[in-house]
Amino acid sequence: MSNYRIQGATGEWEVVIGLEVHAQVTSKAKLFSGASTAFGAEPNTQVSLVDAAMPGMLPVPNRECIRQAVRTGMAINAVINKWSRFDRKNYFYADLPQGYQISQLYHPLVGEGVIEVSLDEKDPEAEVKEIGVERIHVEQDAGKLMHDQHPTRSYVDLNRSGVALMEIVSRPDMRSPQEAGAYLTKLRSILRYVGSCDGNMDQGSMRADVNVSVRKPGGELGTRTETKNVNSVRFVMQAIEQEAQRQVDVLESGGRIVQETRLFDPDKGETRSMRSKEDAHDYRYFPDPDLLPLVLDDAFLDECRATLPELPDAKRRRYEGDLGLPAYNAAVLTADAETARWFEALLAESARIQKKGEAEVAKAASNWLISELFGALNRLGKDIENSPVSPEKGAELLGLVADGTISGSIAKQVLEIMLETGDAPAKIVEEKGLKQTSDTGAIEAEIAKVLEANPDKVADYRGGKDKLFGFFVGQTMKAMQGKANPQVVNELLKKALG
Amino acid sequence: MSELTDFGVKRLRDGVRSGEFSAREVADAFIVNVSKAKELNAFLVETPDHALAAAKAADDARGRGDTLAPLAGVPIGMKDLFCTNGVQSAAASHILEGFEPRYESSVSQRLWDAGAGMLGKLNMDQFAMGSSNETSAFGNVVSPWRRTDGGNAPLTPGGSSGGSSAAIAARLCPAATGTDTGGSIRQPASFTGITGIKPTYGRCSRWGVIAFASSLDQAGAMARDVTDCAILLEAMAGFDPKDATSLDAPVPNWEAGLNPSLAGKRVGIPKEYRMDGMSPEIEALWQQGIDWAKDAGAEIVEVSLPHTKYALPAYYIIAPAEASSNLARYDGVRYGQRDLPDGAGLQDMYAATRAAGFGDEVKRRIMIGTYVLSAGFYDAYYTQAQKVRTLIAQDFENAWGLCDLLLTPTAPSAAFGLGETTDPLSMYLNDVFTVPSSLAGLPAMSVPGGLDKQGLPLGLQIIGKAMDEQNVLNAGLALEQRAGFTARPDAWW
């Protein structure tokens, strides 16, 4: 995992990566005003007097945004600073009505934390690495400029102005694009579990600034560049690859890396310079005098902790331990909060229907979810969130298999019909006559026909070729159109073959 | 009924309540005075309709036999720093010329809820930056006072709340709002022979008050006497969830609590305020004040506020630093003036708009503030100034171990002539006695003590503990009763 190297003319190069992730806090109202935060509203319809920085307007912190950031910090085992403060970052831009962004430079809300990242979450053997999180601070988002509305003018949409962001700053602990991708994926998973950010990178509610430098393995840190606002995991990985290669090329041709801000162009797959350090703003940070220091008491912290859900790592361990799931199943089911939620609903309902403990039904349920439903959703191009089959109906289907009403292969057919019609599985089985039969007379009749048609195989089997048993089962099931109870088929076949 | 305009807040309120005169008569009398005093340039906008509507509401309420609101029948002046719904609120700056907010500041709303009416918006130093009212973009206010030397030189009413002080002294309104960042209520009160109180930082909401320096800005009351200030402040103060620095504490009934006895009180005299080169007249006034306090029963103690000499430099770092950021929003993008030269881009628009919209003093402070916050200078200036601020607050805390109140002069001189002080640093020295209590967020007030030999008013300052406006007002009342200050400018306008 950490052996990613760029082969240059002068030998191998190591890449050093740090990510600053901006995650929009899930909250109905903005960080310092009561205006709504809903995505996709008409321009300038979600703007309060504070967001437009009208004269005399004052910010008042939104407790919910603070709560979400604290819970996020707790989820990565970070230090929560009971005393933090807001600072102003001063610069002029048309999307920044106040002329400053309220952020936290000197005393962030959340301090050191750590995220465990596996290069392949689904592979239990994959190396696990701890990526340090230096801090999480909360800050205001800016508005948006629209340059395509008028031939000579730019328009400003302030709907996003003042929306709460968490800036999650990693340590420069990553050494490959894959590690960065895995970190980002894991972080997004945690945010979704916690419910502090929806993690929708395509809507801009999560985006990353990518800090990259290269060095000879183990050598001194090189000069870094920062590629701003990259908005997908894939683009982050591409941007790192491209930027690291560019830096190696520059260094090997005798140049030097300039500390600068760059932009990633996903169409061309390259980064390009936005502004150099010389042009960098002097942000004149200072404590915001409109706001008192943010002081959190134990009761607030306790409340934050009490509302934390079970997090992916803990959940995976529980699935493996308590439910006895294979490591692969546990990893797949916990990688995403929605999948885990779906699985747990399926599990609870299956246990109820089958009158068994969850651990007893877990393996079958997880296998069905991973191999059957995921496969079907994949073909339909749907996520688990908008699965046409609910966990309740899935459990009903599994119940029909468990009590012998239908066989596993019939269950596949039933699922297809469920996906199409949305009907309940019992109704489908009833209407289509798919009920499994244990009618020994009918099965015995078919077995007789199969044996009669294959006298040579019967002889071989009786001569010691045990493996042919499966062939007879298959033929019998086929003849029964899959509706025969496999256990009954087994028993009767064994009897018939002697 | 011209004598109605000689009445203060309490007298007007009580007269309307008892039916001695109607609120309408009061409003009419002041509206006439305002309209006749253009030469003073105290009002930027006159709002007679607002005052008349409030008067009508008061008279109607009385007619119905309803209990009258605390300020029913009292028309007041509103400093232009307060945003008033539908009425230009420009902080006396070109950059906000024509800006009519669609919202009402919390303090002005409280006053209207208390039954007061608005005679108009009062002139001031631009963005409250100044001590003479000469930085207003709409021309300086002229003090109604003149020296007795017969020279008729136009004098400053002080600043930044100079429109407020001049209007009250000239009987254009019985009371007015002011704001005080480093002395902007107290120094103009001292210069015009009126009374003004800056309460504890956080007592009055800053919501809707155009910001100068957020950690220092505090609204307060200006009126003819201590009782009127108590009444007005009571209506202005109170917790406001829209201001994160607002004090969540009940507002005492200050008027009812007024008591001119200082028996059992220790009044501190800070020795560092006795500065080299202090005018003998100021020194004599101060001694007079000490004697009055003794006479009222106070024990006089000398105290030390050792960091006083660093207060002014620290203030002129912190206030401009905050201002440079607070005023960034005036960029020509959303409201107010916009100067967009042909073919100009965004940066050009910012530069042109702000160059044309801000006055020289505002630009000077934005530049100072930008400089002291910039990389490489931040620690040397801003951080250092914050440390000084902490030490100054500690000075006061230590003094409270020895005394309950402090008594000092309000300003180092009487009102000076317009145009006489051209050097910014000399101008900043006007704040030398008022700035330390601003940095510490303490309540402080100025009451008239007497006249200098040119016939101009001089004020005495009382500084109290945080949240202890009552004792500040009480001491003010004790001095007021002994000073018997009745001088007033002759109407020449």
Give a verbal description of the structure.
The complex is a heterodimer of chains A (about 500) and B (about 500). The two termini of chain A are about 55 Å apart. Helices cover about 40% and strands about 20% of the residues of chain A. Chain A has 3 domains: about 5-305, no CATH class; about 310-430, no CATH class; about 440-495, Arc Repressor Mutant, subunit A (Orthogonal Bundle). Chain A is built from 15 helices and 16 strands. In chain A, helix 7 packs across helix 9 (about 390-400). By secondary structure, chain A is α+β, with helices and mostly antiparallel strands. Chain B is of the alpha/beta class and about 500 residues long. Chain B has a domain at about 1-260 and about 445-485: Amidase signature (AS) enzymes, CATH 3.90.1300.10. Chains A and B meet through loops of A and helix 10 and helix 11 of B.
- Ranges of chain B where pLDDT stays below 50 over 5 or more residues in a row are none
Largest sheet geometry of chain A? 9 strands, mixed
Mean pLDDT of chain A: 93
Judged by helices, strands and strand pairing, the structural class of chain B is alpha/beta
Question: Could you write a compact summary of the structure shown?
Answer:
Chain A is of the alpha+beta class and 498 residues long.
Characteristics of this structure?
heterodimer, A: 498 residues, alpha+beta, Arc Repressor Mutant, subunit A, 3 domains, nine-stranded mixed β-sheet, three-stranded antiparallel β-sheet, 16 strands, 40% helix, 18% strand, B: 493 residues, alpha/beta, Amidase signature (AS) enzymes, eight-stranded mixed β-sheet, three-stranded mixed β-sheet, 11 strands, 38% helix, globular
Topology:
The complex is a heterodimer of chains A (498) and B (493).
Chain A: E1 6-8, E2 11-24, H1 63-75, E3 83-84, E4 87-90, E5 100-103, E6 113-118, E7 128-140, E8 144-146, E9 155-157, E10 164-170, H2 177-194, E11 206-215, E12 225-230, H3 233-252, E13 260-265, E14 270-276, E15 286-287, E16 294-295, H4 298-306, H5 312-321, H6 327-334, H7 337-354, H8 358-380, H9 391-402, H10 408-421, H11 425-432, H12 440-453, H13 455-462, H14 469-479, H15 486-497
Parallel strand pairs in A: 12-13
Antiparallel strand pairs in A: 1-2, 2-10, 2-11, 3-16, 4-5, 4-15, 6-7, 7-10, 8-9, 11-12, 13-14
Chain B: H1 9-18, H2 23-36, E1 43-46, H3 48-64, E2 75-79, H4 106-113, E3 117-122, H5 162-169, E4 175-180, H6 186-192, E5 195-198, E6 218-223, H7 226-236, H8 254-257, E7 266-270, H9 280-295, E8 299-303, H10 311-326, H11 346-357, H12 360-373, H13 378-399, E9 405-409, H14 424-428, H15 435-440, E10 444-451, E11 457-464, H16 469-483
Parallel strand pairs in B: 2-3, 7-8, 7-9
Antiparallel strand pairs in B: 1-3, 4-6, 5-6, 5-10, 9-11, 10-11
Helix pairs in contact in B: 2-3, 5-6, 7-16, 10-12, 10-13
